[in-house]
UniProtKB/TrEMBL annotation:
Name under which the protein is recorded: DUF6817 domain-containing protein
InterPro entries per the UniProt record, alphabetical: AB_hydrolase_fold (IPR029058), DUF6817 (IPR049202)
One Pfam family, short name: DUF6817
Limits of the DUF6817 domain: 90-174
Length: 256
């Protein structure tokens, strides 16, 4: 088998040089068969690759240092380029770039919303939720990118915390939930079941910030929606002002 692999070295190098996705190479730190020179040659072929050396591990890294290996893989999967690639592939495969939305396509709207949240200093989970905030369809945009019963699929793309935000955002009955969010008893009222769920302080903040980022993008790119709903939205945002960060407050002021 080794001879067969080595006999294809030229084609393997060509294939490696053509890789355009994020790449992680794991090296053993103890008597590794992959020398520093080998790693350097690989980086010349794939300059965007990440190389992780697991100190104290021999050739069978997973056996020798399983926790360290898991940490290295986990760190790699959280890199911006890797997360963006994973989310982008999901959006492409789910057809988000073919769905019309104010400002172009749904995919472009989702990207702009996430970038707005990033500029406001939002958490990584909230930014990723912004990239997929319409995954299950929303009160304002019914087309879904995934079946609401397949939540683990979205968890695999953005993680558990971001998916929980997405799920709440998509289930929200806006007309009934929004008026409670500035009160002492903020509620999420499910648009399908009518169930009332108390919101934690953290979830209230996340949903308010995501809602503001989403709606500001919509009214910026659709004059008709802005004319009909812009003023009521700004009045709503004024009630939410104590829960918003400086970036969101400044954006609302510019829109007003």
């Amino acid at each position: 088998m080794i001879g067969d692999i080595l006999g294809r070295a030229t084609s393997l190098r060509t294939a490696a040089a053509s890789l355009d996705m994020p790449v992680l190479m794991i090296r053993a730190g103890l008597h590794s068969p992959l020398s520093d020179e080998d790693a350097y040659r690989f980086l010349k072929l794939v300059p965007h690759a990440t190389i992780a050396t697991i100190a104290g591990a021999g050739h069978l890294v997973a056996r020798d240092k399983p926790l360290e290996l898991a940490q290295a893989i986990g760190d790699f999967l959280l890199q911006d380029a890797v997360r963006d690639r994973r989310i982008g592939l999901f959006l492409t495969h789910s057809g988000a770039d073919t769905l019309c939305h104010p400002g172009g396509t749904l995919a472009r709207h989702l990207h702009r919303t996430a970038e707005t949240l990033r500029n406001w200093g939002a958490s990584l989970a909230l930014i990723d939720a912004g990239r997929l905030h319409a995954a299950y369809g929303t009160d304002g945009f019914l087309a879904a990118l995934a079946d609401g019963t397949a939540r683990e699929k979205i968890v695999a793309v953005v993680g558990r915390e971001a998916e929980t935000i997405i799920d709440c955002y998509c289930r929200c009955d806006r007309d009934r939930s929004y008026p409670t969010w500035h009160t002492d008893t903020p509620m999420l009222i499910d648009r399908s079941t009518g169930a009332h769920e108390p919101l934690s302080p953290e979830m209230r903040l996340a949903l308010i910030e995501l809602t503001v980022a989403n709606e500001l993008d919509v009214i910026e790119h659709d004059p008709e929606i802005a004319a009909r709903f812009g003023a009521p939205l700004l009045r709503l945002f004024a009630r939410w002002r104590p829960f918003l960060g400086d970036g969101a407050r400044a954006a609302i002021s510019r829109s007003g």
